[in-house]
Amino acid sequence: MRAAVRVEGTVQGVGFRPFVYGLADRLGLSGLVGNDAGGVFAEVEGSRAAVAEFLSRLERDAPPLARIERVTVTDLAPGGPAGFVIVASQAGQARQALVAADSATCADCLAELNDPADRRFGYPFINCTNCGPRFTIVGDVPYDRARTTMAAFAMCEACAAEYHDPANRRFHAQPVCCPACGPRLALTGPDGGPLPGDPVDPLATAADLLRHGQILAVKGLGGYHLAVAAACEQAAATLRARKHREDKPFAVMVADLGAARRLCRVDTAAAELLAGPRRPIVLMPRRDGPGIAAAVAPGTRELGIMLPYTPLHHLLLAQLGRPIVLTSGNVSDEPIAYADADALKRLSGIADAFLAHDRPIHIRTDDSVVRAFRGRPMPIRRSRGYVPEPVGVRGGFPRHVLACGAELKNTFCLAKQDRAFVSHHIGDLENAETLRSFTEGIEHFKRLFEIEPRLVAHDLHPDYLSTKYASDTEGVDLLGVQHHHAHIASCLTDNGADGPVIGVAFDGTGYGTDGTVWGGEFLVADLAGFDRAGHLAAVPMPGGAAAIRAPWRMAAAYLDACELAGSGSLDVARRNARQWDAVLALARRGVNSPVTSSAGRLFDAAAALLGVRDEINYEGQAAVELERLAAPGERSGYRAAVTPGHPFQLSGTDLIAAMAGDLRSGTGREIIAARFHNGVAALIEDGCVAARDRTGLRTVALSGGVFQNMLLLHATVTRLQARGFAVLVHSQVPCNDGGISLGQAAVAAAHDRAAARQA
Ligand code: ZN
Ligand code: ZN
Ligand code: FE
Predict the structure, then answer these.
(1) Strand partners, 148
(2) Residue-range definition of the domain harbouring residue 151
(3) CA 20 to 30 Å from 436, out of 4, 42, 133, 254?
């Protein structure tokens, strides 16, 4: 029989044609394979059994970087030419073929890297069709070398021969190169000039510098990192001081899984994430013991670990023989440096030397961060290694959509057909540099995926820069999407679901439809709309934004709500005695004190009440430290009253009052912190039961940054499942505001589909 086969998805630049060629060859099939704008097309002819085997292996044995979305098979009249050929690429109109994400050095390349007989032995830029840089070097499509930052490196004869040989692992690998023709490594001083003594071996010298406690800037795939030896107390402390990063933990890179297991408890799912081709930072429970300086991740129960993902990392770690801190190359909250001149300017005051090279980075892309939750990945930051792989959206997008995301941890999303391209992590849209990444990133994605948005979705918050960008866009329809509806729509889409569900959106801040600050929401929602079924009872935020930076102010507001604020016996009041009464007065009179139903602010209040933290240095810090304090084994929890109604209200104040009571009776802070977490989980259960009683819905979607709290998430999922709920959590995009753009896009699509049905 003879069949035409079309393969759609991420199938170009990943070795798909040589794979098809080899497969057909082994099965004795004749025919052809080629690339076009839609992906890969092939024709195969042979016995029925051989063609069937071909089709089954096509998906099962596909190259590691390929992501097959769809295979379409149609019968052809037999009688094609004998032999099997790879045909020339065909240019088409619509750009359907997808740019692949960057991928860690594969086992074959690693073997060559370590083989003294190989011509790429020890070459820090070795790659092939199965691995290497992709998204971070691509300037335009179709994806070929001339449109990448490899354009300036002309292939030598040996590389060109591999590139043109269909049987070679490097057939049409765009970044293919070798020591004779490719990028070169250089080690320079903090001013970009030569180091004293002009060392001949940059890698050995770099490793030596690290061994001696120096700070090294290292050029990676999507930006510059700052590195120190992870065991070196003084180096880690100096790095912290020079970066102006007070408490936020640093990530650590180790040579292999064995080294990771010595530092952390690594379960099966975490091991897969660590060693897989995407190579994110994986957050895992840390073991006690030496090896990591205290200043790396002060007082945490988790450690963020990644394995080497470029040949340069492999070589550096092999030279050094011990773990390194590898943190983003920037000062405190600035975006990570990626352009060489800018990196030199911004990092010269931090780094003692630069280990860099002459292959430019086209687009800034941070390391991704994930956890494993009950055997599945749970992204915290989705960026390098994942982007620009699309998220599939059932029902699809009738019109091209741009979703602008939120303000903090911004991502944007461009979408067409049934694909949503969620951007790399842009960051907090508060300085000119991140705003430029945002606007330039949107233009880049529009070009790469040929998307011309007709419908632009945005947050309801009028002051978000992403909202302003949307309203400044001309000639498009605008759609405002409520922040927590976007969270729930994001979780639905992440799970391939449409709803309706009971959506629990717990986060720090989101603009409500009534103009107040929401963040502890029970929404009965589908993709098209939502009903606010219930929420945390609102309390004032004394001083507005000042209350976000100073959790003790939320403790004052909550204690005042349960009439305990006056009791001078509480430590939080004593510690903040100078401003306590003035802040209470603000809250009581409602002066500069917007009310909020935010769950994040409830966690802040609890943390301050327990003396965990009165003021924060980074978003979510108080909650992170409260979670760390909690005694893991404690089973009991506080109870919050439910005030029936529509919306029903849950009393966070009850939890705070119970905590104050336990504090006064001398209960340990670890126990109280655990009872608080269990109390919030019980409160969520009560809210979901109340929503189920009214609607009959039995599925709950959990979203919002508060669910990055693993103690809370485990307790909540366990309780909900015990009560017969099906529970949806995130596994493709973050539950925090990094996932908002996907939710906005999904809501926009649902609106367009509904409009199309009515027309
Ligand atoms: Zn490779
Ligand atoms: Zn070469
Ligand atoms: Fe949020």
Answers:
(1) 138
(2) 99-379
(3) 133
